[in-house]
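User: Reviewer 2 asked us to show a designed sequence for the structure in our supplementary figure. I'm pasting the structure tokens here. Could you produce the per-position amino acids so we can include them in the response letter?
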């Protein structure tokens, strides 16, 4: 064993150990020329763990000593069972002087036995990083092969997301498909290291992974990514590169994420609104930085509720006047900005109390931070943007919640019998832009008077504090600045983003799906519309003859609906797929 490279010894030992000692049962073993004695098979029963026999050499060897002694001790003749071999069969039946027994008693053999027990597979700890990675790799490949068998020859969608940390960039790949039981499945395929996140690199790595695991790229009929430019680019984005090879891989961006980007990200393009969200984070960091400040905030709110109850301005009752806190907004939690804004409106006076306490008694660094956010909260601009964002997110919250429901079919969120949520939300925002300024201003003035916020003269000329005014700057009134530069500009940005992110092309494709849901077909029976869109979006996949058959199949399906209660009970595409497989319609 010592003749092998040190890097290979452990692997070779493991292979030998799994096979075990060579113990051949011959009808007649060859006779020794010196003593005319023969090897006996019964000796294997006496020494089953280490004794092995070489047919070609007619020698006996020690299996354990060969594996676990790096170099034999040749001075005492123990190399006979490792290198030269033992064939003096006469000495085996020599009582106490039995050669096999003497070998067992040797220190060399005992050390080999000890090492074998330590390194035996059933004693292995598998704590080596290389061994653990190898085991995980084997398991992962088996899981991926199972995924491949699940997909089989079906159509599937790819979902990709890229992540970047301090050391490397990675790309996660997920497949979505309908299995043989009609269930919609999502399977994580791999996490791939990439050198950069440009669209061409992502596409090459995606294709390499799919082809490596023998997925047919022509079967890709959908792709879902985030809204980054390298993903959604119309000409050079990942979705465009994939669509060049597979023309029916229609790109769909998460609709909840679309709405979040339209509401928050586009609003932050307006400088005062961006500063508001920055200050909002600072307010939460200062006021809720410790459990002590958090307790002060809740105590201040409890005192405020008690005072208002005594004055009769609010009424008591079950579930009313609960003491809460200021919610923290998160870019990855849709709707969290709305909750954060609502909580600040509710805790406005209590927040003032805590900030004044920090300014008076806090440490120097906290005092300066508290003073900065205190002065901002006392400004009319802060109150205006606070209520503007609250109104906008309140109008879009119904759509946001509908798009986030796990059990909600996307088609039902976009097209329902009672209301078209997306188009209705756009119309509501547009009406608020055109006719809502007076209502918002009245609401802001009332709030400012209640919380002792200074109300400016709206007819006075607005003087910017962000930069030094120049002589050729437009002279506008304070009301014009608040109405045009903040109110209208913010809503225009959001309406523009919603129009782009919820465009007619994607909406038309997705409105096809509700027509396949039994409840919708019973109400609309729009077979012509389905056939038209099938021809429009899948002209090659579905031939003219198949489209003719589809029309008659939809007619039969409509009749089957009136008879089959299970089909009528299906309310989503997922339920419909499962029911069609179960009922074999």
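Assistant: Here is a per-position design you can include in the supplement:
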């Amino acid at each position: 064993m010592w003749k092998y490279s040190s890097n290979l010894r452990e692997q070779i030992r493991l292979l030998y150990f799994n096979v075990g000692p060579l113990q051949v049962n011959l009808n007649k073993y060859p006779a020794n020329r010196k003593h005319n004695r023969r090897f006996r098979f019964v000796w294997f029963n006496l020494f089953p763990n280490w004794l092995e026999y070489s047919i070609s050499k007619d020698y006996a060897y020690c299996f354990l000593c060969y594996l676990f002694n790096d170099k034999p001790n040749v001075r005492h003749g123990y190399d006979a069972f490792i290198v030269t071999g033992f064939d003096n069969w006469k000495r085996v039946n020599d009582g106490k002087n039995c050669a096999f027994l003497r070998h067992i008693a040797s220190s060399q053999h005992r050390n080999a036995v000890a090492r074998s027990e330590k390194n035996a597979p059933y004693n292995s700890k598998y704590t080596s990083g290389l061994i653990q990675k190898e085991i995980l790799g084997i398991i992962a490949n088996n899981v991926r092969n199972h995924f491949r068998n699940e997909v089989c020859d079906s159509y599937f969608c790819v979902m990709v997301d890229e992540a970047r940390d301090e050391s490397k960039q990675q790309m996660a790949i997920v497949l979505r498909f309908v299995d043989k039981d009609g269930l919609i499945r999502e399977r994580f395929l791999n996490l791939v290291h990439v050198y950069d996140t440009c669209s061409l690199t992502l596409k090459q790595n995606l294709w390499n992974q799919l082809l490596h695991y023998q997925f047919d790229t022509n079967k890709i009929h959908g792709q879902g990514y985030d809204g980054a430019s390298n993903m959604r680019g119309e000409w050079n984005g990942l979705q465009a590169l994939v669509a060049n090879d597979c023309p029916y891989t229609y790109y769909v961006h998460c609709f909840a994420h679309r709405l979040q980007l339209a509401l928050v990200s586009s609003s932050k393009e307006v400088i005062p609104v961006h500063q508001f969200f920055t200050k909002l984070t600072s307010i939460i960091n200062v006021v809720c930085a410790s459990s002590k400040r958090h307790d002060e905030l809740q105590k201040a709110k409890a005192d405020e509720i008690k005072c208002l109850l005594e004055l009769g301005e609010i009424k008591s009752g079950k579930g009313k006047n609960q003491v809460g806190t200021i919610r923290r907004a998160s870019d990855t939690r849709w709707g969290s900005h709305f909750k954060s804004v609502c909580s600040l409106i509710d805790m406005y006076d209590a927040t003032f109390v805590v900030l004044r306490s920090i300014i008076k008694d806090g440490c120097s660094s906290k005092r300066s931070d508290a003073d900065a956010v205190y002065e901002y909260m006392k400004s009319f601009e802060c109150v205006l943007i606070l209520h503007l964002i609250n109104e906008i997110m309140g109008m879009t919250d119904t759509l946001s919640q509908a798009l986030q429901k796990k059990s909600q079919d996307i088609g039902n969120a976009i097209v329902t019998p009672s209301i078209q949520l997306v188009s209705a939300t756009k119309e509501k925002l547009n009406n608020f832009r055109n006719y809502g300024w007076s209502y918002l201003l009245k609401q802001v003035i009332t709030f400012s008077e209640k919380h002792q916020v200074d109300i400016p003269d709206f007819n006075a000329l607005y003087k910017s504090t962000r930069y030094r005014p120049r002589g050729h700057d437009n002279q506008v009134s304070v009301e014009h600045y608040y109405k045009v530069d903040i109110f209208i500009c913010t809503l225009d940005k959001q309406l523009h983003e919603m129009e782009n992110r919820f465009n007619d092309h994607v909406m038309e494709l997705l409105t096809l799906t509700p027509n396949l849901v039994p409840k919708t077909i019973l109400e609309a029976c729009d077979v012509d519309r389905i056939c038209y869109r099938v021809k429009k979006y899948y002209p090659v996949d579905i031939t003219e003859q198949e489209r003719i058959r589809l029309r008659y199949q939809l007619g039969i399906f409509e009749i089957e609906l009136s008879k089959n209660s299970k089909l009528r009970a299906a309310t989503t595409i997922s339920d419909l797929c499962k029911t069609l497989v179960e009922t074999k319609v």
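For the response letter, you might also mention the following. The first strand starts at residue 51 and ends at 54. The chain has a mean pLDDT of 81.
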